[in-house]
Amino acid sequence: MPTQTLDKEVVIIGSGPAGLTAAIYAARANLKPLLIDAPADAEKQTAPGGQLMITTDVENYPGFSKGIDGPALMEEFRKQAERFGTEFMEEWIHTADLSERPFILRTDSYEINAQTLIIATGASAMWLGIPGEAKVPQGFGGNGVSACATCDGPLPGFRNQPLVVVGGGDTAMEEATFLTRYASKVYVVHRRDKLRASKIMQDKAFQNDKIEFIWNTQVQEILGETQAGVTAVRLQNLKTKAEKELPCSGVFIAIGHKPNTALFKGQLDMDEVGYLLTAHRSTATNVPGVFACGDVQDNCYRQAVTAAGTGCMAALDAERFLDHLPVAMPSGDEVTMEGEHVTPDHQAIIGPDGRMVPNHPEMAATED
Ligand code: FAD
Fold first, then answer.
1. One of 57, 97, 108, 152 is an active-site residue; which one?
2. Cβ(51) to ligand 1 under 6 A?
3. Residue of 4, 34, 263 whose CA lies nearest to 110
4. Which whole-number Å values give the CA distances from 126 to 45, 162, 184, in the listed order?
């Protein structure tokens, strides 16, 4: 049972690039945000600081010409958010009630009432759970095993080397095609004899001379050495049960991502995978006052810089909402804190009582 109750204007869940950027903006706007992140937990795949806490070189975050270590980058984000007065809490939120404002979040120790909520809970890459896949030192994660070709593909250790991509969907085709820019050869290992990917993605991959498909096969183990990292994968043909080792310098697991949205099921609109749906001109979800940013609402880019960009947007949207100004919703309406709706064509305002008044300044004056 929660023992303490807190009342906050802005609560942010998640301390990855999205949540911390939202915190920087909200704190600078004097909104005294509370940022909640789960304690480190290997099973739940959570770590304060988010996904970049499990990577070494981040070479594509602007402002760091020599690259930066993932945890060091997140430490800088955090210090910047702290500097402007963000309050931090390390708790796992197990319930969220978004049926009315203030929204209620519950952890083991706290009940938190939030006037606005910024969701930045990220998405977790799905893993195979095979030997050699775990993060260094238990496996080769971060030393040849990755779940993000855009992030890690250009690293020097993968250049002109044979690489393996595991998966058969659009992400796997995209990752394989992208990796051919650097690799000497890309093997796509897939459990079935056909792909799940869309036709256009399949065609691109089939036409690429550097990609070779290994069908009806699963990766059983990732092999390597402490210094050199990944050196091979052990494969098994699922039809013949025959096993073989395939030499490679990197393995990219591309079997999908799971957005961390279980908490909001039935309350917020999501796509079929579970990504939160936001308005195209704002970070608003279908519940006025609830905003989403970063990977949790992005099934396309999933980069630190895009997460930070939408984190900024979410804080500005929350600020606007708290200032009683209209915020664009996924429906196309704009909604204020008082429950007024501005219609998508901007011609009318519908009050909380259902009364409609014109939104045009001259018409409004005439009506008066
Ligand atoms: P996340 O970073 O995922 O943070 C979400 C946070 O929410 C987590 O800390 C989690 O603990 C917390 N959370 C979730 N649920 C709850 C809950 N119920 N209660 C409390 N807290 C909760 N991108 C790049 O741009 N460049 C790179 O080089 C790069 N390398 C990468 C390497 C790896 C191995 C991985 C996995 C990703 C990499 N990425 C990289 C992608 C990048 O990390 C993500 O796009 C980015 O972290 C997304 O930020 P986010 O803030 O949306 O979410």
1. 152
2. yes
3. 4
4. 10, 23, 26
Q: What is the pLDDT of residues 69-98, one digit of tens each?
A: 999 999 999 999 999 999 999 999 999 999
Each residue's pLDDT tens digit, 141-196: 889 999 999 889 999 999 999 999 999 998 899 999 999 999 999 999 999 999 98
pTM of this prediction? 0.86
Question: Which of 151, 175, 291 for mutating ligand 1's site (highest number of atoms within 8 Å of CB)?
Answer: 151
293 is catalytic: no
Query: Which residues face 112 on adjacent strands?
Result: 6, 105
Ligand 1 site, residue 301, Cβ cutoff 6 A:
no
The answer to whether the CB of 167 is under 6 A from ligand 1 is: no
What's the per-residue H, E or C state across the chain? CCCEEEEEEEEEECCCHHHHHHHHHHHHCCCCCEEEECCCECCCCECCCHHHHHCCEECCCCCCCCCEEHHHHHHHHHHHHHHCCCEEEECCCCEEECCCCCEEEECCCEEEEEEEEEECCCEEECCCCCCCCCECCCCCECCCEECCHHHHCCCHHHCCCEEEEECCCHHHHHHHHHHCCCCCEEEEECCCCCCCCCHHHHHHHHCCCCEEEECCEEEEEEEEECCCEEEEEEEEECCCCCEEEEECCEEEECCCEEECCHHHCCCCCECCCCCECCCCCCCECCCCCEEECHHHHCCCCCCHHHHHHHHHHHHHHHHHHHCCCCEECCCCCEECCCCCEECCCCCEEECCCCCEEECCHHHHHHHC
What confidence tens digit (pLDDT) does each residue in 186-225 have?
999 999 999 988 888 899 999 999 999 999 999 999 999 9
- Tell me how far apart the alpha carbons of residues 11 and 278 are, in angstroms, rounded to a whole number: 18
CB distance 162 to ligand 1 below 6 Å: no
Q: How far is the CA of 288 from the centre of ligand 1 (A)?
A: 25
Whole-number Å distance, alpha carbon 256 to ligand 1 midpoint, is 15
Ligand 1: centre distance to CA 114 (Å): 23
Q: Which of 146, 148, 293 to mutate to test the pocket of ligand 1 (most atoms within 8 A of CB)?
A: 148
